[in-house]
Structures are given as C-alpha cells and as structure tokens.
Amino acid sequence: MAIKIVFVTGGAKSGKSSFVLDKASGVRGKKAFIATAEALDDEMKERIGRHKTERGDEWETYEVPLKVSEALIDATGRHSAVVMDCLTIWLSNILIGEVDTEENVNKLVATLTEIKESPVCTTGPGCSVLYIVSNEVGMGIVPENGLAREFRDLAGGLNQRIAEISDEVYLVVAGIPVKIK
Questions:
Q1: Residues with catalytic annotation?
Q2: Among the four 6, 25, 65, 117, which has the fewest Cβ within 10 Å?
Q3: pTM of this prediction?
C-alpha cells in the first residue's frame, strides 16, 4: 500500500491545523510533525512551545524551516501519520532566504511524488498518511508590493501542484472542513 497524501488549505486561523491534528491523532502508530516556522521572536517562541505541548509526547517534532524534502522522506519512512505545517511558511522561508525558490519548489513536488508512488508501506498497521497544511492566499486583495505579489503567485501555483498529486484535498472555512477532492 502506498502513502496517502491529504492536502488541507484555507485562510489563516481557519481551523486547518486543528482539523489535521484531529485526523492524524486517529491514525494508529508513531506520529511526526514537520514544523516550518522559526522562533524568531518571543511571541513565536511562546506559540511554538504551546503547540508542542498541545501535541504531546505522542509526536516527534522536526523543526525544518528549509529542508522539508529530507524531513518528509525520513518522517514518512518511520511514522504512520506525518503532518507538515505549513507549506506557505516554508515557501516564505525559501523566498526570503538565499536559496533558489524554483529549485526548492520542484524538489519538494518531486519528493512528494516519489513518496506517493512508494510501492510498499513499511510503517506497520494503517501505513502512512501525510497531511500537508497550506494557507490559501489568493482569495484576498491584490498585494501592493512586488514581493507580496510574487509570494501570492508562487503559493497559488504550489498549492495547485500539491493538490493535483494529493489523494484528498480539504478547504477549511470557519473551522468547517469541506472535502473538495
């Protein structure tokens, strides 16, 4: 059995992460959380700490602001449920960092395709489910500056590519998940 990819998108604070953590908690076996946010200020340090506490000891946390492909390969090989939260924060890290955005996006899509096409699930009962969380940023106003427009365009394109290869896609609005694929 291959790994199932579930893509969950929606606005900021729409309930995406809560929905995904609830679904992933129901999967038997070891669980991993791939966190892309960095604790760059006190508020983020507190927020990250709170989220780790809420997940509990059942979860292994990977703190990976840039090299998510490697973390995804490792985590899906060793855990029954893997959550990557969040794709758009990762994209932001890539975009403002000193790395090649197109190369990293293509590498991530290739990695996810490879993971999905893995012929045998080796993680035990239930096999792996990979949940990918992303913000839907294309439903608002057109940003006034070039970097924000570039980010919006890149995020929209990446979300489309991930949705295409995903087995299931959900849009979460006001805490209500709507299955769209």
A1: 51
A2: 117
A3: 0.91
Q: Mean pLDDT of all residues in the chain?
A: 90
Regarding the domain delimited by 4-179, which CATH topology (the fold level of the hierarchy) does it fall under?
Rossmann fold (3.40.50)
Quote the pLDDT of residue 1. Answer: 54
Domain boundaries defined on the chain: 4-179
Give the pLDDT of residue 120: 53
